[in-house]
């Protein structure tokens, strides 16, 4: 039972680490309405502009780390 718990915990940590890295690389646009990196969760400029509509925010290209 202990081996199962350790294996499940290791798998969970690996999946979380993999999903965070892929997420940072896959989104091409960031919504910015204050200093800082912005909300980088948009894969297209059109998606970003739709979210920015009426808020005064702007969309910028995500030049974060890519592999």
Key words describing this protein structure:
single chain; about 70 residues; alpha+beta
Describe the structure.
- With 67 residues, the protein is of the alpha+beta class.
- The protein has one domain (2-61).
- Helices cover 49% and strands 18% of the residues.
- The chain contains 2 helices and 3 strands.
- A 3-stranded antiparallel sheet has the order 2-1-3, covered by helices on one side.
- The chain is elongated.
- The relative contact order is 0.19.
- Strand line-up of the largest beta sheet: 2-1-3
Radius of gyration: 17 Å
Strand content: 15-25%
The parts where pLDDT drops under 50 for at least 5 residues are 17-24
Distance between the termini: 38 Å
Number of domains: 1
Helices and strands, in order, run as HEEHE
- The helix-and-strand class reads alpha+beta
Helix content: 40-55%
Task: Determine the number of helices (DSSP H or I, runs of at least 4 residues).
Answer: 2
What summary fits the major beta sheet?
3 strands, antiparallel
Q: What is the strand tally?
A: 3
Overall spatial form: elongated
Arithmetic mean pLDDT = 76
């Amino acid at each position: 039972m202990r081996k199962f718990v350790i294996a499940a915990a290791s798998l969970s940590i690996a999946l979380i680490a993999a999903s965070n890295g892929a997420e940072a690389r896959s989104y091409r646009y960031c919504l910015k309405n204050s200093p800082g990196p912005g909300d980088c969760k948009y894969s297209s400029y059109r998606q970003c502009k739709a979210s920015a509509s009426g808020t005064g925010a702007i969309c910028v290209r995500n030049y974060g780390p890519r592999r």
